[in-house]
Amino acid sequence: MSDETIDDLMEATYCALCKHGYAELTMQDIAAESAKSKGTLHYHFDSKQDLLESFLEFLLDRFEERTETVPGETPAERLHEFTDELLTPSDDSAEEFRTAILEIKAQSPYNEAYRERLREFDRALRERIATLVADGLEAGEFRDDVEPEATADFLVTLFHGAQTRATAVDRPPERTRQYVHEYIDETLRPAAASGGDASPPTDGTGDGEANG
Q1: How far apart are CA 172 and CA 68, in angstroms?
Q2: Between 153 and which of 70, 168, 204, 207 could a Cys-Cys bridge form, CB atoms 3.0 to 4.6 Å apart?
């Protein structure tokens, strides 16, 4: 399958998910959003699940490409930018897409293929954050007792919780984004730099917004 065909089908899947959600989505719905025919979809994918598995892989690939280089002069600035990337709606369809993804997540306990792809996304997210925190430690920007892996696990849990709350109870993630920025400046940074003396999580047990 050519890159052009992949991009077209994945974009069509995104649009169809936003319009119809996961449960009501059909291959015809996806074809209607695509320049390709329904026959082309069935030629490349055996079923809706097969297509959605590929769609999740596509999202992971794009996420890794997009976040391979995070803008910012320092690790702390890059962590702030990464937070904005995760918790700022990208377009007007972001709410509908979050709802569709939450529906897919709800299927993951019963669908090993979905669960494995969501695990991979979770892993990539944790690794990106842990690397940024480790870079900050090396640069002397963060407290010596900050644990990159534990901090990353804490923030990933918080990000997932914020996204779920935004969909389930209509709590915009912008408030959480503000809290994360404060956490970076007031907790991760040394007291002399932040003006405070709060301690960061060191065991990965904190879950912030996730418990709602």
Answers
A1: 27
A2: 204
pLDDT more than 70, % of the chain: 90
- Among 35, 66, 97, the domain-final residue is 66
Question: Closest Cα to residue 186, out of 176, 175, 173, 200?
Answer: 200
* CATH (domain of 94): 1.10.357.10
Question: How many domains, in total, are found in the chain?
Answer: 2
Return the structure tokens found at 133.
């925190």
Tell me: the pLDDT tens digits for 40-74?
A: 898 999 999 999 999 999 999 999 998 888 999 99
The whole model's pTM is what? Answer: 0.83
Q: What is the DSSP string of the chain?
A: --HHHHHHHHHHHHHHHHHHTTTT--HHHHHHTSSS-HHHHHHH-SSHHHHHHHHHHHHHHHHHHHTSS---SSHHHHHHHHHHHHHS--STTHHHHHHHHHHHHHHGGG-HHHHHHHHHHHHHHHHHHHHHHHHHHHTT-S-TT--HHHHHHHHHHHHHHHHHHHHHS---THHHHHHHHHHIIIIIS-HHHHS------SSS---GGGG-
Q: Do residues 145 and 127 both lie within one domain?
A: yes
Cβ neighbours for 26, distance < 8 A, ≥ 6 positions apart: 20, 48
